[in-house]
Amino acid sequence: MHTTTLPSPARQGVLLPMLFIGLMFFILGFVTWLNGSLIPFLKIVCALNNFQALWVAFAFYIAYTVMALPSAAVLARIGYKKGMTAALGVMAVGALAFIPAARSGQYAIFLVALFTLASGMTLMQTAINPYIVCIGSRESAAMRISIMGLFNKGAGIVVPLVFSALILSGMERFSESALAALDAAGREALRNELSQRLVVPYTVMAAGLLVFMALIHFSSLREPDLDEDDAPSGASSGASSDGVKPWGVFQHPQVVLGAIALFGYVGVEVIAGDTIGLYGRELGVAHYGVLTSYTMGFMVLGYLLGVALIPKWMSQRTALILSGAGGIAFVLGVALSSPTSTGVSQVLLGWAGVPAVPDTVFFLALLGLSNALVWPAIWPLALEGLGKYTAAGSALLIMGIAGGALIPMLYGHLADVTSPQLGYWVMLPWYALILLYALFGSRLRKW
């Protein structure tokens, strides 16, 4: 088995990169999982329906498709460390763009700001995911990515709580009934007042990103010492591009099918994390603003299981099989449970002192458990055997994140024309696809 490691002695290049990349994953998680709270917030501020509100997810995740290949080119030109620094700078610009968006209340400006934020995140993701895969043995790559996932989804638990405390206090003044009682001018004034609440938090976020940018720039973080087979053409590692065909990556079915599986995975992950607040609000859950924390909490549990079990007790492929099968089971729970029943939720959450929710919402949160190990398992399975095409394969997998832009939009349309609960059926075929990739697609080496 081919492995790539950072240079010795005593793997001095491993611990520091793990710490810095863990920090990057936390930042990515913090920004990403703001969307779960931001979507119902902007639905009120900009007077949107479900489909329109989910343009937040579209603008955010479509950047991963548009910017993936340019990000790979940037990394090939300036290297991984400078790429991370540049990524944080672009993210800071996106955070600052929320200030004119909030002051104007214009939905289009919010979407531009989100696209800019996600463009910086695309560059970051393109750098840090292959970095983690190549930092040690491929058999334990899912375990290392699971550790990074703890940082990412740990932020996903924290951010809805912070957003709720800072932004969503006193929301009864902005309820549909309260807004309906006002004339058009009164509604606009109240919505503008609510929109202004975003200015200070996003200003602080931009300042924090600039601080982290300086921290990475002046750190002693090393460039990964990638072998010839794994380095992008023209990268600072000096790898050769001899024999690399422009579209050669598509001759490897494991990475092409892996990108399709990631497309579906990111779509269902975004639905589970970003629509649970909308769904809870529709069902009258009082604390709907923090429901994303429920989904992220189960994802953290899944990552902990991955760290504990992979590779000693469970292979990466087995983890992916269980994830696909579990996702199918939990989607059935979401779609078929009564919106008024809380029996399962009370039993499983009551002992921890966590407020119960309708069972259909609880099963939606449980999808976090099924989702946790999909990303960590697909990356090493998809990149295995790519050799000189590893960088192109990484960019292709990053482009699969576009599922987070498109599949939630389909959910939003179905939720508007049928019901929010029936809309969740859209997730079922994607979990079936993940299961099929684990069983068959990841094993293919030729078409």
Overview of this protein structure:
The protein has helices at residues 12-32, 35-45, 50-53, 55-78, 80-96, 98-104, 107-134, 141-167, 176-180, 184-195, 199-217, 253-274, 276-282, 291-309, 316-336, 343-350, 359-371, 374-383, 390-399, 403-417, 420-423, 428-439. 55% of the residues are buried. It contains 22 helices and no strands.
How are the secondary structure elements laid out?
Blueprint (H helix, E strand, L loop, with lengths): L11 H21 L2 H11 L4 H4 L1 H24 L1 H17 L1 H7 L2 H28 L6 H27 L8 H5 L3 H12 L3 H19 L35 H22 L1 H7 L8 H19 L6 H21 L6 H8 L8 H13 L2 H10 L6 H10 L3 H15 L2 H4 L4 H12 L8
Helix pairs in contact: 1-7, 1-8, 2-13, 4-5, 4-7, 4-19, 4-20, 5-7, 5-11, 6-7, 6-11, 7-8, 7-19, 8-14, 8-18, 12-17, 12-18, 12-19, 12-20, 12-22, 14-17, 15-17, 15-18, 15-22
Helix content: over 70%
Total helical elements? 22
Described by strand count, sense and barrel closure, the largest sheet is: none
Radius of gyration: 21 Å
**Uncertain runs:** 1-12, 227-242
Question: What is the strand content?
Answer: under 5%
Distance between the termini: 22 Å
Please, what is the average pLDDT? 82
Given helix and strand content, the structural type is mainly alpha
Number-wise, the strands total 0
> Which of globular, elongated, flat, extended, rod-shaped describes the shape?
globular
